[in-house]
Amino acid sequence: MLRRAARALALVVLAPLCGLLLTGCFTAPPQIIQLSPVNGSTGVAADAAVRVVFDHPVRRDTVESRLRVGPDIPGCDLQHAFHPAPGADCTVTWSRDSTSFTLQHPHAPFAPNTKYNFALSPGVTDVDGVVNSLDHSWAITSGPPPVVNSITPSNGSTGFAADLPLVVAFSNAMNAETATAITLTPSVPGTRVVRNTRDHGRFVVLPGRLLDSGATYTLTVGTGATDEHGQHLVQEVTSTFQTGGLGTQGHAIVLGRRSGEPATDVFLTALGAQSQGEPAAAALVLSAPRCIAPPCAGAVVTGGAPLVAYLQAAVSPDGRWVAVVVQDLRTPSAPSSVVLLALPSLVERSIAVAGYDVSWSPDASRLAYGAPDGVHVQTVATGRDMVLPPGDPLAAPAAWSGDGHVLALPVQKPSTGFAHVDLAAPDLLARYPVPGLTGSVSNPALSPDGSLLAVRRDGGPDVDGTWTLRLVGGDATPRRLGSDLTPVAFVDGGTLLAAERPPDGDPGLVRVSVNSGDRERLANQPLASDLSSAVVAASGRQVAYLLPDAHGVRQALIENVDGSNPALLTTFDAGSVEAIAVSFAG
């Protein structure tokens, strides 16, 4: 009894002293108090770190010689992991106080669907020499490998739209390098494979050019596809499909140029991405031929330079044609010409050997353009080409009314440069000046039913600004909407989208009521220098314009006319091309 009392007194006296010592006076063997992942875990990520925590410090060497795992982790030697060479695929790191260690193996992932048994043999010793004589063991099971959930178009599909992006959807979030494991055969120059920034299990394949209509392609996902935890696709997956025509979704045309050059590339784009977090599909439909073996055209064109430039491009509202104004750089004094490209075949058809300023009728049946002998309107299906009555030449593309019965012609007198607007009724082969408008008149816009005309007038403080004129019904007296406005297009019969350039304040796009004059600014705006690039869709619901991105590359953007849902139409890389013009179908 006296011995027990003496031992108790010694513990009471020594306890505070042990608490002051660095090593402590541990009398119990070290125990594992925490495992991560916990014993019995399933679906463990392939690169998950394994962490073991003891209740007090241990001698590291007694752990290093006793830790084992079965089966072996591919590419990971546990004994070497405690003293890894630089760049080792797996390493073990200790906490400073030697109470825990962590096995990290990001480049030596677990095999999929595998149960790993970890064990610490008896003999783990704490810093005071107290030995744990128990065998500690625990098990974790790794998760499954990634699989391809779907490919769009699916294997065996026919009639897939030639302008749509291809989509690969995985079961797991995949690393960015998986893009290199996705290939299209036959290859299409300029094709990009992009991982969705919001859904890392989704990749889109954006062909650099329109796919050939009626052709057979194969999309392959190789075993190099790897998820974000290092698991590889177990087997290759393919989808073979056949293309059809263009998709029924809306389109826009973007002109692109390289630094120091005129426009040399024409892109057909979808009106936004299929899913948030990925770019819209922008396929090259026309690229200028270049001087391969200089000198070209009597040294007029240098080596590598384009032989032609594209001054304008407009896609028809039905998506069947692209009208392109082409300037031959080999003969700089020659007039520009107008050609049609059939979509998606890209078969070329000449419209005019001398022509410019093209615009489509809303029903896509007719194309208006300027030529040396006057303003032409061609019926595309039949090739019937008629010339409107004589007048001054076009200074910009004609504006069509929504019903296609009226044309507003922005024209300019060659001798004086004086700008004015004529009206034309192509069905009647009639042309006449707009009544009641004096001064310089430009930028015409017609309401959908052709009853209302908006123009920009310049000629002094009493004239400057946007004016409206009722052409059918009501008071025909011109009415000024605002001295700081320039028309862009009608959104509907009573609302005009205009560029606002106040004398004091920031320029921007506004919706203007033609009745009250009330204005509302769009939430998102192009730069002041890009206001003139704004165009409105035939539906009146969307507006597109140019805007430099964070790298200073000018891109084409689209948004609803209320300023909502802005989205990029192009995502050109720095040093490649930049957008210089955008237009909607029609």
Please write out the topology.
Blueprint: H1 2-20, E1 32-36, E2 41-44, E3 50-54, H2 60-64, E4 67-70, H3 78-81, E5 91-94, E6 100-104, E7 115-120, E8 124-125, E9 131-132, E10 136-142, E11 148-152, E12 166-170, E13 182-185, E14 192-195, E15 202-206, E16 216-221, E17 237-242, E18 251-257, E19 263-270, E20 282-287, E21 308-315, E22 321-328, E23 337-342, E24 348-352, E25 356-360, E26 366-371, E27 374-379, E28 385-387, E29 399-400, E30 407-412, E31 419-425, E32 430-433, E33 440-446, E34 452-458, E35 465-470, E36 479-482, E37 485-492, E38 495-500, E39 508-513, E40 519-521, E41 535-536, E42 542-548, E43 554-560, E44 567-568, E45 578-584
Parallel strand pairs: 2-10
Antiparallel strand pairs: 1-3, 3-6, 4-7, 5-6, 7-10, 8-9, 11-12, 12-15, 13-16, 14-15, 16-17, 18-19, 18-45, 19-20, 21-22, 22-23, 23-24, 25-26, 26-27, 27-28, 29-30, 30-31, 31-32, 33-34, 34-35, 35-36, 37-38, 38-39, 39-40, 41-42, 42-43, 43-44
